[in-house]
Amino acid sequence: MVTIEFWGGLGVIGGSKVMVEDGGHRVLLDIGLDIPSGRDPFRLPVRTRPGRELADRLRLGVAPRIPGLFGPAGLDPGSPLAEPVGPAGSTAVFVSHPHIDHVGLAGFVRDDVAVHAHTDAVDLLTALSATGQGLANGDPAWRRLADRQRVAVGPMEVECVAVDHDVPGASGYLVHTAAGTLAFTGDIRFHGRHPERSWALTERGANCDVLVTEGTTLGWDTRGPLRDETDVERDFAAALEQAAGLVLLSLYPRDLERVAAFLGLAAAAGREIVWTGPVAAFLRLAGVPKLAGIADVLAAEDVPLSDVRAAPSAYVVAPDPDDLPSLLDLPVGEGFPAGVMVHANGEPLGPFEPRWEPFTDWLAALGVELRQIGCSGHADQDQLHHMLERMRPRVVFPIHTTAPARLHPPLGMARTVAEYGLGYDFRGRVARGR
């Protein structure tokens, strides 16, 4: 029997981990960390202990106790999880994209388990590692995938299909099994720079037996027009034009295309963007200067603070979100021309994060206006339902959302709200208990 198990992404945004098992062979789709919020025991100010990142999470039940998946170095001595399950090659991991909530535990996977990702995602993760911002416990031995490439795992065949998201290398997967085909969206949107990629997954997965889809926006109030990258760039250009003083920037560096676009807009406005040292090093290795058509990206150590203070209207500064007191060194607040903080889906990510309130408090104390100009990396509710209409799976499992029951499939299609650790068959029925 072919079974599907869910080891994360249930009732929360992030932490996706979906196991498909066929004849003793296992395919794990994503291996992410939960985003620490709510009552998560590892939310800030708690910090993980070096060398204990996995073991401590397992002890508290916030990492998946999947037998035979993790290498012994990350486990407590004598842990039964260290025992292999089946021969080498019977388990393989497929990462949908390089965001921590989908890849964060990949460094702990045992050496004889293959870990796959799109080649663009591997390039980004490798650049992060080389600049000291990589995965806990280091990178696995990545197996690079191209769009539409297929990999055999025992009797199963896994196909990589590029999709649109707000990071390079985002992919969904089609898992072809003896019981039928399972489609997995990873994180997906249809309003970004490459919607044709996401529609390609919809077409290739049409009439699949099972669809496992992210449903991030199902739990959001999405009233109002859907914003896209054109809106983001327009609003950034407006902020650059309107600000008399320094522009501060919160932008997720892994969104390389948005980084490149912002560099171009800043240059057109007569400003230069100054990044922290590690971020600048990452952007260089990730190829952003070539993507943006510039010679280099600037790090804070390349620009004397005296230059920024003397001519704040000539710069955009992307400060370290975990070093708020460093804002006091910048020409913002009383005695300086009015500045603005442009938040374009950077860190802290939003009000659900423990860091958000201190972040907004510091801006308010310094009299810096906060403008949130981002757009979502996730399909909105209408897009998700349109995708369902076009794919017509027999059963759909919504995950990566706080409101899975708000996905309403068309007549003739079953929706199953999965429970943690249960095994389901390809009709969405429980096939195996915990």
From TrEMBL:
Q: Which Pfam families match?
A: Lactamase_B_2, RMMBL
**Taking every annotated instance into account, which residue ranges of this chain make up the domain Metallo-beta-lactamase?**
14-223
Keyword tags: Exonuclease, Hydrolase, Nuclease, RNA-binding
SMART domains the UniProt entry points to: Lactamase_B (SM00849)
Q: What InterPro entries does this protein map onto?
A: Metallo-B-lactamas, RibonucZ/Hydroxyglut_hydro, RMMBL, RNase_J_2
Name of the protein in its database record = MBL fold metallo-hydrolase
This protein's species is Streptacidiphilus cavernicola
Q: Which taxonomic lineage is given here? A: Bacteria, Bacillati, Actinomycetota, Actinomycetes, Kitasatosporales
